């Protein structure tokens, strides 16, 4: 466990360990839950589809393509739960493949009307 005060800035880093130097890493979706084994019932989205859902979420530039960094302010689930657990989905893409999902950044998916 990592103990922090409310609203303290947290910084995280994910690293890809591969012998292939032509890969890049992208943070797609991160959610928080008060339960380490249930990320569907009570969750809080930090980012979804590469788009920040929380106003304090911020991607942090990395000098290496195989390292993804981001930060956000610490929070709790209405003070009823002593811990917050994170689950993040990261994408691995070919470096410099600008048509890949890693290079698209934030992708907002809009639902269509039944009439369209």
From TrEMBL:
Q: Membrane spanning segments where?
A: none
- Supply the alphabetized keyword list: Disulfide bond, Signal
Q: Which InterPro entries match?
A: ZP-C, ZP-C_dom, ZP_dom
Positions of the ZP domain? 1-109
> Has the keyword Glycoprotein been applied to this entry?
no
Can you say what this protein is called? DMBT1 protein
Q: Which gene encodes it?
A: Dmbt1_5
